[in-house]
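Predict the 3D structure for this chain.
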Amino acid sequence: MNNIKRIQEKLVEKDLDAILVTDEKNQRYAGGFPFTDGLVFVSRDDAYLLTDSRYIEAAEKISGDCCRVRLFTKENPMEELLKAAVKATGAKKIGAEEMKLSYKDYSAYEELLGVKLAPAQCVFAELRQSKNDEELAAMREAQAISEAALEEVLHIIKPGMTEREVAAELVYRMLRHGSEGNSFDPIVVTGKKTSMPHGVPGDEVICEGDFITMDFGSLKHGYCSDMTRTVAVGHVTDEMRNIYDTVLRAQLAGIAAAKAGVPGKDIDGAARKVIADAGYGQYFGHGFGHSLGLDIHEAPNANPKGEAPMPVGAVVSAEPGIYIPGKYGVRIEDVMIIREGGCEVITKAPKQLIIL
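Done. Predicted structure below.
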């Protein structure tokens, strides 16, 4: 999987001769190479991947068809190989990732190359918004892994287990089903802690009558999945059921509003209205959703500030919630692909309230 040609087309659009790629996720997006401690340099007509002896064999195998792979050593350092690549391509106007490089490193590259780098984070921010078929296939795989793990864990959750134990089971089972790792640290909270949207799993014990919120994701081919399910143990009160049903209706309203060309704030607004009309507006503080891909949080976003229209191929979470401090909270999260005229939800796990 590589996107060198897409980057080269974007360089022409942005009036750049080349771009220096230092962020590991952008490097993977460019040349398909999943390792770090090197860099990628892409010009309008060429591309170089610079790495060391630990990764040279893998780099040649993975990226040799799209990049000139070069080995840097103590005697032939990366800085000299980069200068040689710049000279070979004749690049004058070179972009860099101003949001990923420290000021110190950004300045050091300018001094090394003898040019003033152009801020060019937008190259990757714009390209990565819309996923191609290969990227979407990877994300479907990651999502299926997460759902298989959840299905197994739902059969073993019982009163007396701790949040940390449930989180460990999710991680273990995602790995067993083929995950390359967690797309983020899993959130597993129970009881009163479910009112904390990003609560950290601890030694709190699951009890009868509790909600349990599980927010987790796996990685496949470097791409993320993300899902949340809130389940109950033993029984629920009428208020708990009403809150759950309200969140589900809000999520479905946001999903129904999601399509290419619609600003993220309108998708968010459709869900937020359902929660506000039910009297819980003050308890929904975060946005409806965020894009994801190689990173768990990417652009564009479906939140109250989301002015940008959704592009075709964006992968966006749908995760409204209600969180009542000191009592409990509910979040339900799916992932959807933005299409013309609507969206495709790739999360297949049931969403009706499950009482274990």
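The chain is about 35% helix and 20% strand.
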